[in-house]
Amino acid sequence: MYALLSGLVKYMLQKDEYYVLILGLDNAGKTTLLERTKQLYNPGYAGIPMNKITTTVGLNVAKVDIADKNRIIFWDLGGQTSLQSLWNKYYEEAHGVVYVVDSSDPDRIRQSQEAFDQLVGDSNLENVPILVLANKQDRDGCLSVVQVKEVFNQSARRIGPRACKVEPVSAVTGEGIRPAMEWLAQTLVRNSKHRPPKRRDIS
Ligand SMILES: Nc1nc2c(ncn2[C@@H]2O[C@H](COP(=O)(O)OP(=O)(O)OP(=O)(O)O)[C@@H](O)[C@H]2O)c(=O)[nH]1
Ligand SMILES: [Mg+2]
């Protein structure tokens, strides 16, 4: 009986941790998205004022509890061309990828798709689910989610059978982030036969 109860308590004090990379070109809105996600899921969190966010050179890490038993550790990397060569150092550990696209910058959409094509073709990301966020939907005249999908469909062969979804969001207003993150959390759980989570005591 004691063993049963202590096992139950231990289970209740554990969470499954999934590591998710936030990637995309510089200025796509990755760090803004991370800050907004932290605010949405941690009501007491005031966060960094949006106008104080500057280009990422190192790495921003944040723990977010999306569902009761599931915790996502986000790794937000810098998107500048010189920093993209560091992305693949994290692929082996990643359970998922959030790829952020600046929908208000049609001039760089092709460049964004090319960087995406390279990452989906990397064997260390095989079977890893990908959430593509068509960000900055609050901006007038931005590309619609359908237009972003048309461009990213060119990577269809490399995406293969893995779970991949394109969702419209605004990191500034927060619109669309919750449904997108909930899809991601469910998909990470469904994909755990390929990339099992790390079970950890709650801290
Ligand atoms: N209008 C609007 N602006 C946004 C949105 N998301 C980000 N921005 C702006 O885009 C700029 C770049 O945002 P960051 O979050 O620093 O972009 P990043 O992708 O982290 O850039 P790097 O760290 O250089 O890779 C900032 O001025 C943000 O305020 C959005 O949803 N709507
Ligand atoms: Mg950044």
Automatic annotation (TrEMBL):
Record-listed GTP binding positions: 24-31, 79, 135-138
Keywords: GTP-binding, Magnesium, Metal-binding, Nucleotide-binding
Keyword Nucleotide-binding included in the entry's annotation: yes
PROSITE patterns assigned to the protein according to its UniProt record, in alphabetical order: ARF (PS51417)
GO molecular function: GTP binding; GTPase activity; metal ion binding
CDD domains: Arfrp1 (cd04160)
Segments forming a coiled coil: none
Entry-linked SUPFAM superfamilies: P-loop containing nucleoside triphosphate hydrolases (SSF52540)
Pfam families per record: Arf
Amino acids binding Mg(2+): 31, 56
GO cellular component: Golgi apparatus
UniProt superkingdom: Eukaryota
GO biological process, any: Golgi to plasma membrane protein transport
Listed NCBIfam families: small_GTP
PANTHER family: ADP-RIBOSYLATION FACTOR-RELATED PROTEIN 1
Family: Belongs to the small GTPase superfamily. Arf family.
Name of this protein: GTPase
